[in-house]
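Pc22g04500 protein, Penicillium rubens. Tokens?
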Amino acid sequence: MQFQYSFRDRKYVICGSESVYRERITDVLLAEHALLELSQREEMLHHRATALDKTLAVESDRLQPEKTNSVESTRTELEKTHQQLKEAQVECARKEYALYEATSMLTPYIKKFYDNLRRDPKWFMREELVQDCSDRGGCCSRECGCCAQRCEEEKNLLQRKKGRGHCTTECQCCIGFRGFEFPEEDKEKIRRDFEAKVKYPITGSAYFIKLANWYFCPLKCQKPSNPSKPKSRRYRIFGRGSTDEKES
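Tokens:
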């Protein structure tokens, strides 16, 4: 199964023997990304609130008359973070429903592939998406292993099955690595750039097809490895395979 543009009309893509309205796939990709970004923001704010709670407790224990301003500043920041976290949680519920609406508009044939792929919690650790994350400077370009940990239920803070994937501008680990959080105007520009690559054929046709294949196409199994030999680091990272790999 592979997506390609219809030769007759670029408003449609062909998958197997089925012609699909391109906008249906676009809506799913944008909804997936929006939920992923917001989920990572929620996780980042949760960690920030926890850190501020601990800081406030330490400052209160060591409170000195001349340092009351520091405690009040931390308390104000904590209240602000809790409010932002609450807003993110509400918005996450909306984005999750938006993803449901987008996927419900898929044809049964395409929806089957989408659902089957999502049954594997490690679906987004396919080689192409790992490489894409690495190219964007995400956690897959480092040794932290954050993206792989998002597959694991016990290591997933939010316990949400949807909204998992590779790094966005809201990734807590990436923010820590950079040493700063992008200003909101920069985040908005990055969102618009991503939308342009996915939504408009002239500016992002190649990327759209790649992304559609990565988000919908089944994982290809790799050749069985020799059980007497340890698995390579590449195998341990990429697991079951990739979209572009030829079947043996």
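Confidence is low (pLDDT under 50) at residues 222-230.
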